[in-house]
Amino acid sequence: MESERVSWTQIPGGMTTALPVAAAIAAGDKLFVLAVGEDQGVYYNVNTGGAWATAWTKIPGGQTKNAVCTLVNPAGVPSVIITGLDGKLYCASWQDDKNGWTAWQSLDGGAGSTPVAAAAVDNGKRYAFFLTGNDKHVHVDGDTYKVAF
């Protein structure tokens, strides 16, 4: 197997971050990339039809010191999950080009947690969130998947 060289291109808009980024592909082949800005706000850029937006847009209200996590449900709707500055978990979901993202919704639990490690959706009917606790163990939100929100 031959190794391929990858040519990296900076996404327009000048976003700088020290944290890992997250990405999600939504219905309609929209590619979202999300990052935490230097002001601890959550920003996104979107690639539609092969072209990136020229600026990063802040999702109002959410702040975090940790990396973000994304998930996409089977209908192609992306969501972003963060650990807020208060240590609780929050989620915002994409609505459409006109309305942007929903307001941040608090998810039960998560106080004192470190960054969300992973998120999963099962058939659009059930979901689970995973995090690393202060005890450095991996935790799941409940013993079984919960009904989707």
Number of distinct beta strands:
14
Helical proportion? Answer: under 10%
CATH superfamily: Kelch-type beta propeller
Which band does the percent of strand residues land in?
A: over 45%
CATH architecture: 6 Propeller
Q: What is the chain-wise order of helices and strands?
A: EEEEEEEEEEEEEE
Mind summarizing the main beta sheet?
5 strands, antiparallel
Would you identify the regions where 5 or more consecutive residues have pLDDT less than 50? none
Q: What is the averaged pLDDT score?
A: 82
Overall CATH class: Mainly Beta
Assembly form of the protein? single chain
CATH fold call? Neuraminidase
Describe the structure.
This is PLL-like beta propeller domain-containing protein. This protein is mainly β and 149 residues long. The chain has a single domain, classed as Kelch-type beta propeller (Neuraminidase). Helices cover 0% and strands 47% of the residues. The protein has no helices and 14 strands. Strands 1, 2, 3, 4 and 5 form a 5-stranded antiparallel beta sheet that branches. Strands 6, 7, 8, 9 and 10 form a 5-stranded antiparallel beta sheet that branches. Strands 11, 12, 13 and 14 form a 4-stranded antiparallel beta sheet that branches. β12 and β13 (138-140) form a beta hairpin.
